[in-house]
Design a protein that fits this description.
Layout (H helix, E strand, L loop, with lengths): L2 H45 L11 E3 L5 E3 L4 H9 L4 E3 L4 E3 L22 H5 L1 E3 L34 H13 L44 H14 L18 H14 L2 E3 L18 H11 L14 E4 L3 H6 L5 H22 L2 H5 L4 E5 L12 H5 L2 E4 L15 E2 L25 E6 L6 H9 L5 E4 L4 H5 L2 H7 L1 E7 L8 H7 L3 E5 L18 E2 L8 H6 L3 H14 L14 H16 L3
Parallel strand pairs: 2-5, 6-7, 7-8, 8-9, 9-10, 11-12, 11-13, 13-14, 14-15
Antiparallel strand pairs: 1-2, 3-4
Helix pairs in contact: 2-4, 5-6
């Protein structure tokens, strides 16, 4: 054999050897990719009993601390385990991991925050096979309480670990696959009782599906989803000409949400139901809010939909006050009759029209200001669990008002049905000489305690009910107009008309009602124009008020004057008034429910 032939044979052997070696390396790498995650998972589960990832998930962490997930379906499981409890916060907006049912919503956030144990490794993820837009470096904060004033309501994050896996399993069992989710939230400890998104609705609520199967949604729901995304991406605003920024949790998101509501939101008002319980608003007294909303909603040219197929929501136009007056029964029998009446009315609508059954009432809402309003909804399970209820008696501790879904309706005392703005206004801050004022009946547990401690105080006017002849001369209103602080204690129920009265008369409200969800609390920062005192601190009431420096009081009083426009009724609604704010609360609650 010649030298040239020998050289050619050597080259061929080397080429074949290189090919074989390459194939072997490829097979080894593939074997590592599909086998080592399970070995790694087994190893980490033995060393870490709190590993929250579902078993046989095919997960591991590489040398840089990134989570590696092999099959695409594992992203659904990961979202179940941590997606709905994770939250990223940036300077002006919130981003929720798994908000759209996938992990591809992870966004890069610039700031560095503290994170719980093993949270960073779980959330700093990348996918090796599917080209999902994941950030490779996530420096974010997992939070349960916001540190700024975001409009969008965060969801409370339980401890990552076994609890997360249990939560995912529970949601799989509890929530049927539906197109809408009625989410409920809880109050946070800080940020003026801001809603934290704690799940309180229970197993029977209409819930969002975590199923891998795609769910068809209607064009109207697509509109709401598109609006929700736009609100998340709202451009940052420092100042808005029509709004006073310190009043809002996040003025940028509120303004964008309000604009989208004006642009697309349509409500169908049912024509069914006879007078006086339906379609006949009562416009005077302390329960006037439900009447004024009914009147303006039924006559609205911008929000009313004549075609129900084009409506995003459906309004049940009944009066809780008139329903209460419609029976001569008393006590528990009377309350049961009222609840049964409303239940039969809604059952009739469900049998007559397809709209209720389509979402089990999740896209319906009612407005009730009477104290018995919540009790009137208790016999209809879908109303109780799914329907958005705008209630003056906004007390979540009784189990009917659901935080994050139901809406706190302002209790407004209207003295003239023809002129709801009568007597609005008050003295400037430097002319208010009385430290605090309260006069009223001794309803409930709080007022007698307050009277016992402060009736004899000379700096504060704390007294019982005023005689009618003194009230008729306007002494009650004049005292509110000339006092620095107006005390607003709860009565039999958590709400009080004095809160909005104080705003009307430009007096800083002092709210004493532990379980009260304040109106528009999802968007308004009540700390900017009100003082909240816990019921147990009534003996320290004067000390608390005197501890507020003068410059702080003047800022609070300025906030009261600026927020007043959001609590005023007008015969013809104007932008950002109380009618639009109530409607925005309903709109915003509906957006929170819409998920894929």
């Amino acid at each position: 054999m010649g030298t040239s032939n020998w050289i050619r044979m050597k080259v061929r052997i080397r080429r074949k050897t290189s090919v074989v070696f390459g194939v072997m390396v490829f097979l080894v790498l593939e074997l590592q990719f599909y086998t080592f995650p399970y070995l790694n998972e087994l190893s980490s589960s033995l060393s870490n009993t709190n590993n929250p990832l579902p078993k046989k998930m095919g997960t591991k962490f590489d040398s840089m601390g990134f989570l590696e997930v092999s099959p695409p379906d594992n992203f659904t499981k990961l979202a179940e385990a941590v997606g709905d409890v994770g939250l990223f916060e940036s300077s002006s907006r919130l981003f929720s991991l798994g908000d759209q049912g996938e992990v591809s919503n992870i966004l890069s956030v610039k700031r560095d925050f503290e994170m719980p144990d093993n949270a960073k490794e779980m959330l700093r993820g990348r996918h090796k096979k599917a080209a999902l837009p994941l950030a490779t470096h996530v420096n974010a904060k997992m939070v349960g309480t916001p540190t700024e004033n975001p409009l969008m309501v965060p969801r409370k994050m339980p401890t990552l670990g076994a609890e997360a896996t249990a939560l995912a399993a529970k949601r799989k069992r509890s929530y049927p696959s539906q197109r809408t989710s009625v989410s409920s939230t809880g109050n946070s400890a800080g940020m003026s009782r801001f809603l934290t998104g704690e799940d309180q609705a229970g197993k029977k609520r209409s819930g969002n599906s975590y199923s891998k199967k795609p769910v068809r949604i209607s064009p109207l729901e697509k509109e709401l989803l598109s609006a929700k995304r736009e609100i998340y991406r709202a451009p940052h605003l420092e100042n808005v000409r029509e709004l006073y920024a310190p009043l809002f949790r996040n003025i940028s998101m509120f303004k964008r949400s309000y604009e989208l509501m004006e642009k697309i939101f349509k409500v169908y008002v049912y024509k069914d139901g006879g007078s006086p319980i339906f379609h006949k608003p009562y416009l005077r007294g302390i329960y006037a809010s439900e009447g004024w909303f009914m009147k303006l909603m039924e006559t609205s040219k911008y929000f009313s939909a004549n075609d129900p197929s084009r409506a995003h929501m459906f309004y049940l136009p009944y009066s809780a006050l008139k329903l209460r007056s419609a029976t001569n029964a008393t006590g528990a029998t009377r309350q049961k009759f009222l609840a049964l009446y409303l239940k039969n009315y809604i059952s009739m609508l469900a049998a007559k029209y397809p709209f209720w059954n389509k979402t089990h009432g999740a896209d319906h809402f009612l407005v009730a200001c009477h104290d018995w309003g919540p009790q009137q909804t208790r016999l209809h399970e879908e109303v109780k669990l799914n329907t958005i209820k705008a209630l003056c008696n906004a007390n979540p501790s009784k189990g009917i008002f659901k935080l994050g879904r139901d809406v706190s309706l302002p209790t407004t005392y209207i003295r003239s049905g023809q002129d709801p703005l009568k007597d609005v206004g008050g003295k400037p801050a430097h002319e208010r000489q009385t430290l605090a004022f309260f006069a009223g009946q001794m309803h409930g547990r709080v007022r007698p305690v307050m009277l016992q401690h402060w009736e004899q105080d000379t700096d504060m006017k704390i007294q019982g009910e005023m005689p009618d002849r003194i009230q008729s001369k306007g002494s009650y209103r004049e005292n509110m107009k000339s006092s620095r602080y107006c005390i607003c204690p709860r009565g039999y129920e958590v709400n009080s008309p004095r809160v909005v009265e104080a705003i009307y008369y430009e007096c800083v409200p002092v709210i004493i009602s532990d379980d009260y969800v304040l109106p528009f609390d999802e968007v308004l920062n009540w700390d900017a124009f009100a003082v909240t005192v816990r019921e147990k601190d009534i003996p320290r009431l004067k000390e608390i008020l005197l501890s507020i420096p003068d410059h702080r009081y003047r800022m609070l009083q300025l906030g009261v004057r600026r927020v007043q426009k959001h609590f005023l009724w007008h015969a013809n609604p104007v932008k950002y008034d109380i009618f639009h704010m109530i409607l925005h609360s309903v709109w915003f609650s509906r957006l929170r429910q819409i998920r894929i």
